[in-house]
């Protein structure tokens, strides 16, 4: 069935295919990497695009609205929608802790005061009471506001969403 001539043809075919592959690779390098194969350092590939200086972004930024005004205009119904992201770790029922402590009556509650939940200790060092301002700072950037906190959530970037969420949490248990 197999003789030496058949085996020689098969090995030769594989060697030939490999050589064609290497030749194709070399040609592709020459096509796409012009200047890399002996064309000299003085030759530059590409075009320089001149770009005008951009106007300062600070001049175009809108004035920041104080958080107290955002909280006064906040909609608890919108905050309930924002709370969906929190449901994975927090419960609203009194005493029902999840991955995080329950949020029943959190606005105005002492920081780190939920019985049966093991806090990291970082929160107690930063604040004593969960005021709307403290909640705003924590919800914006939990790890930045309370370094060492166990909360892994990256935070809510929009101030309006934070205000709506705090207004919603203020209606739960208060």
UniProtKB/TrEMBL annotation:
Q: Give the record's keywords alphabetically.
A: Electron transport, Heme, Iron, Metal-binding, Transport
| Boundaries of every Cytochrome c domain copy | 74-173
PROSITE patterns, A to Z: CYTC
Alphabetized Gene3D superfamilies for the sequence: Cytochrome c-like domain
Please tell me whether the keyword Transport is annotated for this protein: yes
Q: Which InterPro entries match?
A: Cyt_c-like_dom, Cyt_c-like_dom_sf, Cyt_c_1A/1B
Do you know which PANTHER family this protein is assigned to? Answer: CYTOCHROME C (PTHR11961)
Give the protein's recorded name: Cytochrome C
Q: Which GO terms describe its molecular function?
A: electron transfer activity; heme binding; metal ion binding
Any keyword Electron transport? yes
């Amino acid at each position: 069935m197999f003789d030496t001539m058949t085996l020689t043809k098969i090995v030769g075919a594989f060697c030939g295919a490999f050589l064609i592959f290497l030749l194709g690779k070399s040609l592709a390098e020459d096509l796409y990497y012009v200047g890399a194969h002996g064309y000299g350092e003085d030759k530059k590939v590409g075009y320089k695009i001149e770009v005008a200086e951009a106007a300062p972004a600070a001049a175009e930024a809108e004035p920041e609205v104080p958080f107290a005004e955002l909280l006064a205009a906040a909609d608890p119904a919108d905050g309930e929608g924002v709370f969906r992201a929190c449901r994975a770790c927090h419960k609203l029922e009194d005493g029902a802790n999840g991955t995080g402590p329950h949020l029943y009556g959190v606005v105005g509650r002492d920081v780190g005061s939920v019985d049966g939940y093991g806090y990291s200790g970082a929160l107690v060092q930063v604040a004593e009471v969960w005021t709307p301002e403290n909640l705003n700072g924590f919800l914006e950037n939990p790890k930045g506001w309370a370094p060492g906190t166990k909360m892994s959530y990256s935070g809510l970037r929009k101030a309006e969403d934070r205000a709506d969420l705090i207004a919603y949490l203020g209606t739960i248990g208060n």
